[in-house]
Design goal:
This protein is of the alpha/beta class and 282 residues long. It is 27% helix and 30% strand. The strands form two sheets. The chain has a seven-stranded antiparallel beta sheet with strand order 4-3-7-1-2-6-5. Strands 11-10-9-8-12-13 form a six-stranded parallel beta sheet, with helices on both faces. Helix 4 links the parallel strand 8 and strand 9. Helix 7 packs parallel to helix 8. The longest helix is centred in the middle third of the chain and has 17 residues.
């Protein structure tokens, strides 16, 4: 109740996206301290009554401060009170609650709808990747939800000198180029971050492209490929160019996680590799 009461309450802005996915932006009533790897429980009474559903948080930020019209100097407490923190989720449409929520957004004029919501959290253990010199992040489909906060955190930490990371590679597998829209606003922010080109490499694999000609790499640090990734080859390349210990984080379907685990296990005797798996289970 403390999290969601006051300041107009918590509002959920639900956007219907291609590929039966939703981007949910939560405008929180009170400040929220979120760290990569955490999740929360979402209640939308007008859709699911008082049932709650767990979701990984993909993005967090604070909206611009509303300044006083008369230019009166405000105290720090007043400034904090005017800040509106937002949390963003990426949710795949399934059955029940997510199906109803998607249909509500899809039927709206612009594919977007605002609903009153309640949020509980944050929860979850945090896998700190700050001490690894090399970090490889594998995501399958909507599993990018869990990965994006780590990418942002590591790139920012590299620029500030607060993490050990010197090589960060993101490998994301999706079925269609349309699915890039799921994280477009967040990825645009990451690509514009200070010193991003020095540390981050992004590899996008389109498993079911309509036409291979539509697969074009935007730059040397952001590359697109048709088909599925050869995980053994990718991890092998990173191991050959490894700086410090390597942390490998995967969030995807069971077969992807199994493949990444097998490849990492095979190389653990030759170098230092830690394997971390995140699975959406409840």
């Amino acid at each position: 109740m403390f999290r969601n009461c006051g300041n107009g309450g918590t509002t959920a802005i639900v956007e219907a996206l291609p590929g039966d996915a939703m981007r949910i932006t939560l405008k929180m009533a009170r400040p929220w301290r979120f760290k990569p790897g955490q999740h929360m429980y979402l209640y939308v009474p007008s859709v699911g009554l008082w049932t709650s559903h767990p979701f990984s948080v993909a993005w967090s930020q604070t909206e611009e401060i509303v300044t006083d019209e008369k230019g009166i100097v405000m105290s720090r407490q007043d400034v904090l009170a005017l800040q509106k923190p937002t949390l963003s989720l990426l949710v795949r449409r399934r059955t029940g609650f997510t199906d109803k929520l998607y249909k509500r957004a899809e039927r709206s004029v612009d594919g977007r709808i605002a609903l009153k919501a309640l949020v509980e959290g944050p929860y979850g253990s945090i896998h700190a990747l700050d001490s690894y010199g090399t970090v490889v992040l594998f995501a399958g489909g909507v599993g990018i939800t869990h990965i994006v906060p780590f990418v942002r955190h590591l790139v920012a930490g590299y620029a500030e000198g607060t993490v050990a990371a010197r090589r960060v590679t993101l490998v994301w597998t999706i079925q269609s180029p349309e699915h890039l829209e799921w994280i477009r606003p967040w990825m645009t922010t990451i690509l514009g971050m200070e010193r991003r080109r020095e540390i981050l490499r992004i590899m996008l694999f389109i498993s079911r492209p309509r036409n291979t000609k539509e697969i074009q790499s935007p730059s040397a640090t952001v590359q697109m490929f048709p088909g599925r990734p050869n995980i053994d080859t990718l991890v092998g390349i990173e191991a050959e160019n490894q700086i410090g210990a390597m942390g490998v984080l995967v969030c995807g379907n069971g077969s992807m996680s199994d493949d990444v685990r097998r490849v990492c296990r095979k190389r653990q005797t030759k170098t230092h590799i830690d394997f971390i798996e995140e699975s959406f289970t409840w």
